[in-house]
TrEMBL record, chain A:
GO terms for molecular function: ATP binding; ATP hydrolysis activity. Keywords: ATP-binding, Cell cycle, Cell division, Nucleotide-binding, Septation. ATPase required for the correct placement of the division site. Cell division inhibitors MinC and MinD act in concert to form an inhibitor capable of blocking formation of the polar Z ring septums. Rapidly oscillates between the poles of the cell to destabilize FtsZ filaments that have formed before they mature into polar Z rings. One of its GO terms (cellular component) is cytoplasmic side of plasma membrane. Residues 5-220 form the CobQ/CobB/MinD/ParA nucleotide binding domain. It comes from the Bacteria. ATP binds at K11, G12, G13, V14, G15, K16, S17, T18. This is Septum site-determining protein MinD. The lineage of its organism: Bacteria, Bacillati, Bacillota, Bacilli, Lactobacillales. InterPro entries: CobQ/CobB/MinD/ParA_Nub-bd_dom, MinD, MinD_FleN, P-loop_NTPase, ParA/MinD_ATPase.
TrEMBL record, chain B:
Pfam families: MinC_C, MinC_N_1. It comes from Agrilactobacillus composti DSM 18527 = JCM 14202. This is Septum formation inhibitor MinC, C-terminal domain protein. Residues 106-194 form the Septum formation inhibitor MinC C-terminal domain. The keyword Cell cycle applies. SUPFAM superfamilies: Cell-division inhibitor MinC, C-terminal domain. It comes from the Bacteria. Signal peptide: none annotated. Keywords: Cell cycle, Cell division, Septation. One of its GO terms (biological process) is division septum assembly. Residues 4-81 form the Septum site-determining protein MinC N-terminal domain. Interacts with MinD and FtsZ.
Amino acid sequence: MAISLVITSGKGGVGKSTTAANLGTALALMNRRVCMIDLDIGLRNLDVIMGLSNRIIYDIVDVVMGRAQLHQALVKDKRFDDKLYLLPAAQNSDKNVLTPANVVDIVNQLRPDFDYILLDCPAGIEQGFQNAIAGADGAIVICTPEIPSVSDADRVVGILEQTDMKLAPRLIINRINRQMMNSGDTMDVDEITKHLSIGLLGIVFEDSNVILASNRGVPVVMDPEDNASQGYRNIARRVLGESVPLMTLKEQKPTFFQKLFGRHQHKH
Amino acid sequence: MDSVILKGRKNGYEITLNASANFDDNMVDLNRLLEKLSEAEQESDSDLGFYLKTGSRLLNDAQMKRIYDLFDKYKGFSIADLQADVADLAAIAAAEKVNHIHVEMATIRSGQEVSYESDVLFLGNLHPNGVLKSRGNIFVMGDCSGILCAGFPDNEDAIIVGDISNVPQIRISDTVEIINKKNQQFSKSTVALINDLHVLDFDTLDHLSSLRPKLYRKMEDNL
Ligand SMILES: Nc1ncnc2c1ncn2[C@@H]1O[C@H](COP(=O)(O)OP(=O)(O)OP(=O)(O)O)[C@@H](O)[C@H]1O
Ligand SMILES: [Mg+2]
């Protein structure tokens, strides 16, 4: 029976869809059966990041409107045998056709066939957000080390705490720029985690390969050497219950100037 | 025998138990009063009904039982009626709430607004864009980076006590103050209040006895 997790943030563009794609892929690489559901009706992305766009025939709204069976709308990712599926969002339909009850219903129909269901939530806290959290057993809250993002995450955590989900929300801090964080130009991991007072699921560094990978439709997590990929792989292991130490914030190779001015030295 | 008052009524006696006295004292005095009355009424064999009033005190079940048990000891005496003065029990409940200080440890997050009828001792975290509101006073010891509203909506005597260095804005009654750390030093003993000129002002806790004597006395009583 699958566990369903919503990936949410309040603020837009902080990496929800990227996280859904990479966490889903990482879990599939670890032999779990995963179904990703894109709930960002009208602005679907998950299919693009996964490189599955051209294989979409039906979408979630088709299922809800009875134009397609649920299994017909699931897009299988052939790179992972039978492990990874996507239920795409509709691109050109009224986003208010979907209700929380629809999402709960779809999630429940999928549960027997999967280990994890990941719900990619739209930005904001309106209907689309309500739909997404309705179907979830737990939430993964994404934020970046910027105050507006942390503030929106705080708002979302407040709402999540008032809907009784089975699992407590957990935090991913995305797009960490080591240098800025080490020099105190952004809030650091401890500050953010303490402020939001929810468990930290993991951190992901700012990494231009994430963008390249999304453009190619090959999630970055498939490259084991990549830095952001390691962040996502660690997150997947923690989702599975392993305890994995947090990646270090230390710069790997300080540049000449950093050495000169001692900026690479760790704050703590 | 001062904690109970006896009055004659045309259909019996009325006894008021003074609510400002201790209930145990009420009982001792009531017993003594009934003893006297029973001596005086020894001759008559007609039954006497008593109308009992408890003023502003609401009796709990155990207290009521003690009163009924006491009357059972006196032959011919019975309770015709037993009630508090205040018709509206909800009002009492509200008053109790106001008199008592609420200790809050929660985290108030962005977009959340938490209101209290009573004074609040806030030990939790008030995040940016969160609001903590009270009809009464607010005492803060926790981390506060959201808005504090005391005396909401129109209690000008309300105060806010504590370190409000990180609070962007405070409101008392209908006045608003944007906090500017540069112009003002705050500490754990900062008191924000509305002064005689109806302006939001800051002082320190050691002046509370002259600033808000009533509150000061009440706080002393409770310590
Ligand atoms: N760790 C990272 N390093 C570099 N770029 C990243 C990282 N994570 C996400 N991005 C980029 O940030 C942009 C926004 O990411 P994404 O679409 O996943 O955000 P979102 O929260 O789903 O946005 P929306 O609210 O619009 O749905 C994308 O261009 C993505 O490639
Ligand atoms: Mg998205």
